[in-house]
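Q: Is it fine to ask for two folds in a single conversation?
A: Yes, each is treated on its own. Send the first.
Q: Here.
A: Result:
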Amino acid sequence: MNFGFATIDATGFDFSSESAQTIVGSYKQCDDAYKSGMPVILYGWDYNSVPISPTPVYVMPSTNAYIIDGKISVSNADVITIL
C-alpha cells in the first residue's frame, strides 16, 4: 500500500470562469491520481486571479471524464468545466 498523496496541478484553471477551459494533461493527472488510491490534493488554481490554497479533493470516474468534488468535470480531451 502506498502512503502519501497524489496531486493534480490545475495551474491556469480559473474557478470563477463559467467558460470551459483546456489544460493540457489534466485528464491524465486525474487518471493517475484516481488510480493511485491515495488522497488527492488539487493545487495551482485560482479564483479571478486570486490563488486558491492547495485543497484535498475527491476524484471519481465518469464516462470519458473525471469529476472533482462533484463540481468540476475534466474530460478526456482535457476540457475542464464547472458543473
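Q: Second one now.
A: Result:
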Amino acid sequence: MYTFGQSLTDDVHFLDHMEYGIPIQVYIRNLHTDIGFIQGICKEFVKVNNLYYSRSLYTFISRPGY
C-alpha cells in the first residue's frame, strides 16, 4: 500500500499505480505541474494526461484517495 505523498521512483511503483488506478501528482523543482493517472511508462518517461514527463526531470508523488 502506498501512502499519501510517497515519492515514486522504482518501476514497480509506477506499474502499481497504473494497474490499480492510483492517482499521482507531478512536480518539477517543487512546483506542481499535473495530477492524474499513469497511462504508460518506460525507462525514461511517464505518460500522464496524454503528456510525457521525463523521469529524470520530474518528481512523482502518490496521491491515493485523491
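Q: Anything structural to flag on that second result?
A: Two points. The chain has one domain: 7-62. The mean pLDDT is 94.
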